[in-house]
Fold this sequence. Notes:
- This protein is mainly alpha-helical.
- Helices cover 53% and strands 5% of the residues.
- α1 (63-85) runs antiparallel to α2 (90-120), α1 packs parallel to α3 and α2 (90-120) runs antiparallel to α3.
Amino acid sequence: xxxxxxxxxxxxxxxxxxxxxxxxxxxxxxxxxxxxxxxxxxxxxxxxxxxxxxxxxxxxxxxxxxxxxxxxxxxxxxxxxxxxxxxxxxxxxxxxxxxxxxxxxxxxxxxxxxxxxxxxxxxxxxxxxxxxxxxxxxxxxxxxxxxxxxxxxxxx
Length: 156
């Protein structure tokens, strides 16, 4: 009988076995395309041990921003006939002046309201660029209407 192996009696180890390392295949995206990244999902919120459903919704477009853009385009398109007719028909020029001023002021007001709405929605409402474009078009419409009004007053 042999004594059990202890710290001073070690069993000789056999030859070191070398395992062939298989390279892992990582598919790469075609040239020019980004490699897709894994999705990150935040941990679920729990109340008293129950998960709360948190829908991830896309922000809705702002209605006043779209209205501001439409009113700005209408004001600019309404000011051009006034610029053309104000020289030989002042009353027609004043009519287009009023049309362009009303749409221009409405566009500016809707754009300011839409920007405030988007800012306070904290990501729930989109359309900041549309509101800015409507604001600029409303200012241009009011400027063209002012020029139309001046031409019509001088022609009277």
